[in-house]
């Protein structure tokens, strides 16, 4: 029994070390959210077991929690670097798979077709604007026309603090292309991690609800800035030392159980 109990501890310690290593490896990943490991005990009992004599048989990983606290905001000066200073996620769509994904990494660029995309080529989603009215019931990829109605060439694009995407042309005219759509979830820790600091909705997270930046509980939009990882290196190193001690203690318990078993075998011989 002691072997199995300590073995569960070793496995759990390895899982915790893996989570901590993943956090540390992504300490410089834009928009990354750290995780932590939660454990629960395992108890062996039956309906006739005396509660005073119940013996535990180890531990298990009950959950690996994602922590969506705000990371430090870094100013970059780039007009298409975006950060949210509160709750919510940027909404992007993968042009190959057509899947909708969510991210806190707001580094966008303009591709050859005029779409605003991130490093994974997923296109930023916005609410269309019709005659000055924002249509929050639909989403579309924001695309910058190469020329305006007068034939002037595209010059630059900016995203205002209220999420409005505005393109400027050589003749000095502006064209509003949409409003950045910010998604929120009832249970964001239920989102499925897809890598590259992106997530997809699941049954545990609930369906996304959308709104404009700065409305309700949604964070305001900061142009020219990026949200860094929320990993605290000092905290992770302390957790790493604790996990190592946890692993060593369980390994020592197995070693002690082995010595006791060997002693009993020698007595019988």
Automatic annotation (TrEMBL):
Residues 222-267 form the Flagellar basal-body/hook protein C-terminal domain. Residues 4-33 form the Flagellar basal body rod protein N-terminal domain. It holds the Pfam family LlgE_F_G_D1. Residues 83-167 form the Flagellar hook protein FlgE/F/G-like D1 domain. The keyword S-adenosyl-L-methionine does not apply. It is found in: Bacterial flagellum basal body. The keyword Membrane does not apply. Keywords: Bacterial flagellum, Cell projection, Cilium, Flagellum. It comes from the Bacteria. GO terms for biological process: bacterial-type flagellum-dependent swarming motility. GO terms for cellular component: bacterial-type flagellum basal body; bacterial-type flagellum hook; cytosol. Belongs to the flagella basal body rod proteins family. A flexible structure which links the flagellar filament to the drive apparatus in the basal body. This is Flagellar hook protein FlgE. It comes from Novosphingobium silvae.
């Amino acid at each position: 029994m002691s072997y199995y109990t300590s073995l569960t501890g070793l496995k759990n310690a390895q899982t915790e070390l893996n989570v901590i290593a993943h956090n540390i490896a992504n300490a410089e990943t834009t928009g990354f959210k750290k995780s932590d490991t939660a454990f629960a005990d395992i108890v062996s009992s039956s309906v006739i077991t005396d509660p005073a004599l119940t013996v535990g048989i180890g531990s298990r990983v009950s959950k690996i929690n994602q922590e969506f606290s705000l990371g430090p905001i870094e100013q970059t000066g780039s007009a298409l670097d975006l950060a949210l200073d509160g709750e919510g996620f940027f909404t992007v769509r993968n042009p190959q798979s057509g899947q909708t994904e969510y991210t806190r990494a707001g580094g966008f660029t303009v591709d050859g077709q005029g779409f605003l995309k991130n490093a994974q080529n997923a296109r930023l989603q916005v609410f269309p604007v019709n005659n000055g009215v924002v249509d929050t019931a639909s989403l579309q990829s924001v695309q910058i026309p190469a020329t305006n109605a007068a034939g002037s060439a595209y010059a630059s694009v900016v995203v205002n603090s209220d999420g409005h995407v505005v393109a400027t042309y050589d003749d000095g005219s502006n064209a509003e292309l949409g409003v950045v759509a910010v998604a929120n979830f009832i249970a964001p820790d239920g989102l499925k991690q897809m890598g590259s600091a992106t997530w997809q909705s699941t049954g545990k997270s609930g369906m996304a609800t959308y709104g404009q930046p700065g409305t309700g509980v949604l964070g305001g939009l900061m142009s020219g800035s990026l949200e860094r990882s929320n990993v605290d290196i000092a905290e992770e190193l302390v957790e790493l030392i604790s996990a190592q001690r946890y692993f060593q203690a369980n390994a020592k318990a197995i070693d002690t159980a082995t010595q006791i078993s060997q002693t009993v075998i020698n007595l019988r011989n």
